[in-house]
């Protein structure tokens, strides 16, 4: 099977003018002592324009690849030849380099693009970028070996590229050359160019210049269809990461790790038109999956959908934790550890988890933990600025003094597991170290329950101390400065963290109250909540005046499985009768349930189905759109999805019988949001549905559509 490896560099900034960098670059040819494998190069083709502004040179380069002798013998070659074409435009001050392999070109395809351009904000600086792809079709059964060799050679060369330019710059300086004049047009045509400013839009002959792509989509389309991801696409330098920024804010990454970050980020910019996570957060997902870009993309997308669903981006600004939490949740931020990581202190043993769950429900507790994590991300950013080095995780100190059997109360443990699971999935690689202090005898029991839910990477960061061991050698002082050890651990620092204590029973709430409370928490958002019962779907009416409008929807199936339909009717349905809920109104106090389609209406006569039904499972998040063909009334319908009977036997299973006795099992819950976009807003092209339209929540996944069907629904689990 063919393997394709891609590489995309960050932007490397040289604080020297383009002309000087070119003088240094030229010295690499015909051979370069700093690249021992670069044995020779011959000029195959050369072109110079009359005014000498354009210089294109094509070379055939001979490389002595550092590969096992056996492999060279099997391949039957000693040297590998590459063709390198350099297009220098002195007027525009750009050099574009394209290289590909001539040897084995039917088995292995290597393409590389590099560019030297003027820094957009400083015309005396030069930017360098490179990208490459390696596609191994076949290699005598040694595909993966060849891939490893190629990647190794390539990454070591990437590192060398900068050294080489710096080496020749120094050489030039030693020879007294620190300035190379810019190109000026021949005197004859001086009049025409006296108005010229350093960076004019340029003829499209030379690759794709940056200045021309600032406007207009055409270039961008050319770009995407071409095989060269390295050409600067439209946009500001902020869209690109430069090497110095990575080192300062994100840390030391290998070239391939940088490449993964840049490619994943580029993909997000193209597909998620809303809010894109910060670079350090994207990097956490890559680290959590050992820089496997596909796996990282998958968990990151799930997390973005989750953030949108739960409006997590607004948590810190909009949500005020209930008083009970402020009084009884025994956790808080407390300075930082010796590595500069924010320190979170949790006195779990003093905390009445059962009381908190009973008084607040799981939902509010989870919300609170999320707000703590969001605050943690913010503090990491702050500490990165303060300490002058990348800090991407925090340290958590958990004091178990007082832990007892009460903490093993099942619903409490269940809540804890769910919280751990949500945090693991959405805040990967944020826990730098976990110090567990004063672990009592029941701790191993709790640990056995909890540890399977914790990622291996995370588990390595746990340090557990029984009794007073934390005061001894290898204890707390190795990780936290003496001055900030909290008073309750025998330190001198007053710790502001609440003491915890038992939550008074008078604050406990019934399950029903909590259920309604949950609904309240959700409906502060732009979403509406609806209940769907067996035999009682929920329907929403949308009246369309302008034939080619776009109906968009975005819903989450919170409970149960449902079928989603969209119908068209020429005549208006009767307004729903207030008592249409019938018996259900008793069982669902918070439920919003409306039927619009009259029982006597017939499908195909009174109304028609305009999209094929979509089955949506519990927990799914669905976004989609439908381009309307006719004016009139459209009805969106969420219907109970009845389970197919058990295939193996005709006898009803005990579970089924029990389920049918419980009314709640026939209740599904949907959170939905719909909006109609006028055709003028999306200018007849499906792609502009991707624009982050006012109503769509910020992280909505891009909505795509095929030309055959007028709709699309995207499901993410």
TrEMBL record:
Tree of life domain: Eukaryota
Region Disordered, residue ranges: 190-214
Molecular function in Gene Ontology: RIG-I binding
Entry keyword Cytoplasm: yes
Keyword rRNA-binding belongs to the record: no
Biological process terms in GO annotation: innate immune response; negative regulation of RIG-I signaling pathway
One CC-aspect GO term: cytosol
Localization of this protein: Cytoplasm; Golgi apparatus
Keywords in alphabetical order: Cytoplasm, Golgi apparatus, Immunity, Innate immunity, Phosphoprotein, Signal transduction inhibitor
InterPro entries named in the record: CRAL-TRIO_dom, CRAL-TRIO_dom_sf, CRAL/TRIO_N_dom, CRAL/TRIO_N_dom_sf, GOLD_dom, GOLD_dom_sf, PRELI/MSF1_dom, SEC14/CRAL-TRIO_domain
CRAL-TRIO domain residues: 321-497
Domain GOLD: 523-676
Xref: PANTHER family: SEC14 RELATED PROTEIN (PTHR23324), SEC14-LIKE PROTEIN 1 (PTHR23324:SF51)
Subunit structure: Interacts with RIGI (via tandem CARD domain); the interaction is direct. Interacts (via GOLD domain) with SLC18A3; the interaction is direct. Interacts with SLC5A7 (via GOLD domain); the interaction is direct.
Protein name, UniProt field: SEC14-like protein 1
């Amino acid at each position: 099977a063919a393997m394709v490896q891609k590489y995309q560099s960050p932007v490397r900034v040289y604080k020297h003018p383009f002309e000087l960098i070119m003088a240094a670059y030229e010295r690499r040819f015909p051979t370069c002592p700093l690249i021992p494998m670069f044995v020779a190069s011959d000029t195959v083709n050369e072109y110079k324009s009359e005014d000498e502004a354009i210089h294109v040179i094509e070379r055939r380069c001979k490389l002595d690849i550092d590969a096992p002798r056996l492999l060279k013998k099997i391949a039957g070659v000693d040297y590998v030849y590459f063709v390198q074409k350099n297009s220098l435009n002195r007027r525009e001050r750009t050099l574009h380099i394209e290289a590909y392999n001539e040897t084995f070109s039917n088995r292995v395809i290597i393409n590389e693009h590099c560019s030297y351009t003027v820094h957009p904000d400083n015309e005396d600086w030069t930017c360098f970028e490179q990208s490459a792809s390696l596609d191994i079709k076949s290699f005598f059964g040694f595909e993966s070996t060849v891939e490893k060799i190629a990647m190794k050679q390539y990454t070591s060369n990437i590192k060398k590229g900068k050294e080489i330019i710096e080496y020749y710059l120094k050489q030039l300086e030693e020879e007294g050359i620190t300035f190379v004049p810019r190109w000026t047009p021949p005197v004859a045509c001086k009049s025409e160019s006296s108005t010229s400013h350093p960076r004019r839009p340029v003829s499209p002959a030379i690759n794709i210049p940056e200045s021309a792509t600032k406007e207009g989509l055409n270039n961008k389309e050319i770009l995407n269809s071409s095989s060269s991801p390295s050409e600067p696409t439209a946009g500001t330098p902020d869209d690109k990461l430069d090497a110095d920024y990575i080192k300062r804010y994100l840390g030391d990454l290998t070239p391939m790790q940088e490449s993964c970050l840049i490619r994943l980020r580029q993909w997000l910019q193209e597909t998620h038109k809303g809010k894109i996570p910060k670079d350090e957060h994207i990097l956490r997902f890559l680290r959590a999956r050992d820089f496997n870009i596909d796996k990282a993309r998958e968990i990151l997308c799930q997390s973005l959908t989750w953030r949108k669903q739960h409006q997590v981006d607004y948590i810190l600004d909009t949500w005020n934790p209930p008083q009970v939490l402020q009084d009884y949740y025994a956790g808080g931020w407390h300075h930082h550890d010796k590595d500069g990581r924010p320190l979170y202190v949790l006195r779990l043993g003093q905390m009445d988890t059962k009381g908190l769950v009973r008084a607040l429900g799981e939902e509010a507790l989870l919300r609170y933990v999320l707000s703590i994590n969001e605050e943690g991300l913010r503090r990491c950013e702050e500490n990165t600025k303060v300490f002058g080095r990348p800090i991407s995780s925090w340290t958590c100190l958990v004091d178990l003094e007082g832990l007892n059997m009460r903490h093993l109360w099942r619903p409490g443990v269940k809540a804890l597991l769910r919280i751990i699971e949500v945090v693991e999935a959405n805040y990967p690689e944020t826990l730098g170290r976990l110090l567990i202090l004063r672990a009592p005898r029941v701790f191993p029991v709790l640990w056995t329950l909890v540890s399977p839910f914790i990622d291996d990477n995370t588990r390595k960061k746990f340090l557990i101390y029984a009794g007073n061991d934390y005061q001894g050698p290898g204890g707390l002082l190795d990780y936290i400065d003496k001055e900030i050890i909290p008073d309750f651990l025998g330190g001198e620092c007053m710790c502001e963290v609440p003491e915890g204590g038992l939550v008074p029973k008078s604050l406990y709430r019934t399950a029903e109250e909590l259920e309604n409370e949950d609904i309240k928490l959700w409906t502060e958002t732009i979403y509406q909540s609806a209940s769907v019962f067996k035999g009682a779907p929920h329907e929403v009416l949308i009246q369309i005046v302008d034939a080619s409008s776009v109906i968009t929807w975005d819903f989450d199936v919170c409970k149960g499985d449902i079928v989603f339909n969209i119908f068209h009717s020429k005549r208006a349905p009767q307004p729903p009768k207030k008592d249409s809920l019938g018996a259900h109104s008793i069982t669902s106090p918070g439920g919003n349930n409306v039927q619009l389609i009259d029982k006597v209406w017939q499908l195909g006569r009174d109304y028609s189905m305009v999209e094929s039904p979509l089955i949506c499972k519990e927990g799914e998040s669905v976004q989609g759109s439908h381009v309307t063909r006719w004016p009139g009334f459209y009805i969106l319908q969420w219907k109970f999805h009845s389970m197919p009977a058990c295939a193996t036997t005709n006898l009803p299973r005990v579970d089924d019988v029990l389920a049918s006795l419980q009314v709640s099992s026939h209740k599904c819950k949907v959170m939905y949001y719909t909006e109609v976009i006028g055709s003028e807003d999306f200018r007849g092209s499906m792609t502009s549905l991707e624009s982050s339209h006012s109503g769509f929540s910020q992280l909505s996944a891009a909505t795509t559509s095929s030309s055959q069907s007028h709709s699309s629904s995207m499901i993410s689990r």
